[in-house]
Here is the input.
Amino acid sequence: MSQWNPWHGCHKISAGCLNCYVYRIDASFDRDATIISKTANFNLPLKKTRGGDYKLSAGEIVYTCFSSDFFLEEADEWRIEAWQMIRLRSDLHFYIITKRIDRFTVNLPADWGAGYDNVSICSTCENQDRADYRLPILLSLPIRHKAIICEPLLEQINLSPWLHPSIEGVIVGGESGKNARTCDFNWVLDLRAQCVKKKVPFHFKQTGARFVKDGHLYFIKRQDQHVQAAKAAIDFDV
Here is the structure.
């Protein structure tokens, strides 16, 4: 498992962006997260060791563009080259999460067809409004591997209309950071029930910092948020 951030910086576009971790990290270094720029690792998929081997080994999952958004408007021209590298490294699997699924087709490769088999596209939806807008678009697109990310989960969401067999999974998590908004376990369980009914895999990734369970608000340290979610033991696989 590796991470590839070909560019850095982003613009907030919806409720889920309010306490963005990229902004939070950049602020700690006195950097402006709204400045979009290529990174020194732009060509990471093609970089090689002194011995001539790729630095990213065949078979790895590559979490892509986690310090920005792959479909950001400012990166339209850069994305052309990024797609070329993704196509060349068909031995890797690129995992892309986006809040801009409505820009997916901008500068899409001519040979994309029904999608590259080594690419997963995950659309986020933190509330019902974004689910209603983004998920019909996700379902309509030619993508071989599709998933839904409800993180940060900000309210109860009905995903049932879009839990199509083409959706390979739903991932749910709360919000981290000192200004985190509350995530309610009942919302998580409701999403799980929807996934079970539609036979779509479900993963409870992390609780977030402010987590409500059985009417009680818990403040959970960052290092414990994934652990506590795992302890709930509510993941569902088909």
About this structure: The first strand starts at residue 2 and ends at 4. The helical segments are 21-28, 76-88, 128-140, 185-198, 222-232.
